[in-house]
Amino acid sequence: MDSKSTRVLALISVLLSCASVPEYVNSKPAQLGTLHIWVQPDPVITANLVLDGCRFWEPVGVKCEIVQNPAKADVVVSVSYEPCLSLARKRVAATKTGAMAGVTALRPECKAVFPKDEDITEAWSMLGLSTMAGQVTLYPMCMSWAGGGIVVPDMVRRTAAHEVGHELGINHVPLSCNDNCVQYELDAAGAKLCGPAIMNAPIVDAMHITPIDADAFRRPNTRLFPNRQ
Ligand SMILES: [Zn+2]
Q1: What percent of the chain shows pLDDT beyond 70?
Q2: What is the overall mean pLDDT for the chain?
Q3: How far is the CA of 32 from the centre of ligand 1 (A)?
């Protein structure tokens, strides 16, 4: 196990709505390998929705397959119906239990990054978590708009795509190169990729990976089989 296996990275629920989020297109991707995924049986977070999300990565050569046996999976996806608390509230709870990881408070000066003058820290909630070592958790109670209680399938797909990206070894990509307001990871090479991407920490309004995601995947710290390395 390397140090990465202890990391937990979250996707959060402020929707970054971009007028045009570029799509990475590759008409002849080299098939690098198959990522085997097991999804905890659930009536809402279905294996097919998770598979749809994983398939965002097909243009870079990742083939996705659902398996019936978690022991045969590269990535095990669990579903948690814990109540959807804002990150701020989770943080308070975590301080008491010492159990929280991967969550960062937003500094006051960073609120300007977002379009509305509101307490963004209070508004953010967690959609998914990845250990970057073969374990993903999805939080359906945070996947409805405006507290409507009905899970939005595209949010499941996007979240699954993002968490699979972590399992492939990709850290967060900042939306802006000047943005250091959220917990972003830099890879070993230190080069900074930035712009709209499925691997932005706040969820982006796209149903595909972007050229930046593809560049992030091509970095040397990515890998196809999180459980086998
Ligand atoms: Zn993330």
Answers
A1: 62
A2: 76
A3: 23
Cβ proximity of 143 and 158 under 8 Å: no
> Quick one: residue 169, left, alpha or beta (phi over 0 = left, psi -120 to 50 = alpha)?
left
Q: Is the pTM of this model over 0.70?
A: yes
Return the higher-pLDDT residue of 94 and 191: 191
CA of 11 to the centre of ligand 1 (A): 4
Compute the distance from residue 135 Cα to the ligand 1 centre, in Å.
13
Distance 109 CA to ligand 1 centre (A): 22
**pLDDT average, residue stretch 105-112:** 44
The CA 160 to ligand 1 mean position distance, Å, reads: 10
Residue 15 Cα to ligand 1 middle (Å): 14
Residue ranges of the domains in the chain?
A: 3-228
CATH superfamily membership of 3-228: Collagenase (Catalytic Domain) (3.40.390.10)
- Interatomic CA distance for residues 72 and 225, integer angstroms: 11
31: left (phi over 0), alpha (psi -120 to 50) or beta: beta
- For the stretch 6-51, pLDDT in tens is 445 666 665 555 557 899 999 888 888 899 999 999 999 999 999 9
Ligand 1 center from residue 183 Cα (angstroms):
10
